[in-house]
Design goal:
Blueprint lengths: L7 H4 L2 H11 L13 E11 L9 E7 L19 E4 H11 L3 E5 L9 H10 L3 E6 L13 E6 L23 E6 L2 H13 L8 E6 L6 H11 L4 E2 L3 H5 L8
Parallel strand pairs: 2-4, 4-5, 5-6, 6-7, 7-8, 8-9
Antiparallel strand pairs: 1-2, 1-3
Helix pairs in contact: 3-4
Amino acid sequence: MPGERATATGTRSVLQDGASMLAARPHIEPRRVPGADSVVVSEIYLSLQGESSHQGLLCSFVRLTGCHLRCRWCDSAFAFRGGTRMAVADVVERVKALGSPRVEVTGGEPLLQPGVYPLMEALLAEGLVVLLETSGAIDVRLVPSAVHKIVDVKCPGSGEADRNDWRCLESLTGRDELKFVLASRQDYEWAKACIAERGLERGPAGLLFSTVHGELSPTDLAEWIIADRLPVRFQLQQHKVLWAPDARGV
């Protein structure tokens, strides 16, 4: 917020954070399971892409059930449990019926379900542009290379920064993006240090900065980015601007 200054926590080396990460809470490994041909779905709907370089474009969404994280500002806690198990083929037909050339697989955390990999492959086989939004807490090495990966980097304000699986960086390409959602000046300083220490400005993936709705002023974030000349794309979370923060199916 205005007038905030970076603290020792905000500028702590992200490399130190990474070194202690695995000791804090072990990672869940990505896994494919032979014969996995279904997923548990929270909702399937048509809307506009709210984040990433695809922002504003018509997009179908497949939201899968389940997440092992509990980010403090999560806006999709309804997807933590419940849902309907659907065959991959049926999900693909539902998506095709929505009529968008673009589809995003999201959650929850979609990579918790082994069936997500054949789902993404089936959507690609239909000629669709496939996006994956993932927490960054599960390595993305098994994700098909043609999928556009939007990988979160959890900042300290989320309460889940120790879950970042930095191995994700090894699998990113020029079509992929790293997304930092910031709740404070401390998060901003942490993210800036992360970019510098890990050389992310020289990596292939695009860098996205956006604010937690109602906690950090977009104007403040824009001014910080300009002042520091950061090589990032500033974004408003479009669905929060257009619809109520807790709205579903948008």
